[in-house]
């Protein structure tokens, strides 16, 4: 019988001090930031950086990991086999509503960095990096926090929770720290800054000024395919390790983390683990968003329309593969810096996509298309239109998304999108193509050639 996995049963596990805080505890965070922080330690036997990580909406991940003292098995899966490693860097797994503990940590001189994976919707920004104060959740946080930041008011947004913690850090007379987004969105540092400072200015002008002077918001580009955990994986881990793990993580061998920005309170030596620090991250962000994420979204919609369920199945379909290559050709025209190594990156992506032992479900990737396609296909299409070209391949990705959403509604299937109401309304419009484009970009929604191209592509689909 397998023994439970925790720090008493796994004698080799070390317990580092909590110096990092994360919002958005999930499988990707554990396969990426937590893993690379462990890899960056100078002395493996005496780790110096531990994570306290808080869940998003659901407390499920924290409830699974707490009995394990934060330990979990990371399974790195390649065509040659599996490699299992118990990760001991996650010291605390906390539910999202434990704002009291979050505040306590942010007011600690030991904590130097906050990282985040809360998805684009979690920043609550309108156009132009402006806080969406009309949003009900944001408005509720503003009303709550205006009553005072003392104690631990239960803010709902990530920015609201950070604001409470930063207010306590300031009150304790501590210096600032770094708040770094690890979400798949362009300019994620500027996005995070806009969300936190936007809320601070609505609540407390003096605190907003302190944040502006003392807190940094580095940008990052992150990459590692991490499928959802399944019961099958749990059983395989038990057989391979002899431990019963409630929450193992499976991932691919490849990883990438590119960072731009300053860390005023210090940070792990992530470069020891292969993390790149650059002066200008924009094209690195776009390489990831347009080549990896862009092709993922194309495969998620077009691949499912053709009956596929995984990335590996889709990329081995000659028609899907050709559409992916066309999209990459358009994107590559705007990724011109030599250090991006775009041809090698494309070759590596094909190898990753065809890994037969990483089951990356297209249905999982397809979630939240109305948000994801803004930064993926729509961004490529806008770049192509600005260059005087048609952007046909990017337009096809958008057409596939529209066709996929239409099919879901016609078949009375749940539309898994945080903007599902907006998508449903757009699809019911007299002309759904410009209505759907308006969800992605107002300029594209006014481009008659783009509308005609997508309308014709929909007929083909």
Automatic annotation (TrEMBL):
Annotated ranges, domain Mannitol dehydrogenase C-terminal: 280-461
Chemical reaction(s) catalysed: D-mannitol 1-phosphate + NAD(+) = beta-D-fructose 6-phosphate + NADH + H(+)
Protein keywords: Oxidoreductase
Pfam families per UniProt: Mannitol_dh (PF01232), Mannitol_dh_C (PF08125)
Domain of life according to the entry: Bacteria
InterPro entries for this protein: 6-PGluconate_DH-like_C_sf, 6PGD_dom2, Mannitol_DH, Mannitol_DH/Oxidoreductase, Mannitol_DH_C, Mannitol_DH_N, NAD(P)-bd_dom_sf
All residue ranges annotated as the Mannitol dehydrogenase N-terminal domain in the record: 19-271
Membrane-crossing segments per the record: none
Entry's Gene Ontology molecular function annotations: mannitol-1-phosphate 5-dehydrogenase activity
Protein name: Mannitol dehydrogenase family protein
Species annotation: Corynebacterium tapiri
Higher taxonomy: Bacteria, Bacillati, Actinomycetota, Actinomycetes, Mycobacteriales
